[in-house]
Amino acid sequence: MITLDNVTLTYPDGASRLVAVDGVSLTARPGTVTGITGPSGSGKSSLLAIAATLIRPDSGRVMIGDTDASALDAAEATALRRERIGIVFQQSNLIASLTAREQLEVMDHLGGRRSGRRDTAARRARALELLEAVGLAGQADKRPSQLSGGQMQRINIARALMHDPEVLLVDEPTSALDQERGAEIIALIGRLTRERGTATMLVTHDLSHLDALEQSIRVVDGRIAERTTADPAAVSAGAPGHTHRAEPVGSRIAV
To answer: Which residue range is the domain that position 82 belongs to?
Structure first.
């Protein structure tokens, strides 16, 4: 589980400071996807960066399970990300010279999780298992130039799951995909979240995907303006089943 507790983030803006995130409280629970939407410049990406421990908030707490990540120093935050947080960036940033399987293996190797011949075999088995989970079992030996945009994004997702994180943070995974491929990626993230019990936060600009998420928030000027919750059974079944409740801009909503 990941909880943002009354987090605020500001940036220097001349003689004053610009408020990017303003007193947001938010909880994403294991096995569910929380969508984060809002207009450009509303604070969505800043909120995700705080959750990822890439930026320390000015105030408030970021709880990963029972760990206060906002109190960690830089080295401790890096270790936390390697061990407990998976991040899917907007661009897949795959290494051109590596195969799909090697893209995953190198992440495990860089994390220092396994070394030695026996551990190398475990790393390969883990990579192949995840490629199968994202529907790419037959593409393990292909390089990025041989793959479609949707396939590369699937590798991006599998790579983020390589170290079995408890929190998965996803930034605009469908921005470079058409509507059909985008819907497939959102459905894949939802399925993997439920199967693997991750607490997933997903930033998206495409409101057509919200029916596939257990809950979502709309951010305006750094504050939560609205939330949408869904019937979990309806989400699992792929059917629309949301109930809506709008809150005034400036309220803090825990979901």
So the answer is: 2-94+149-246
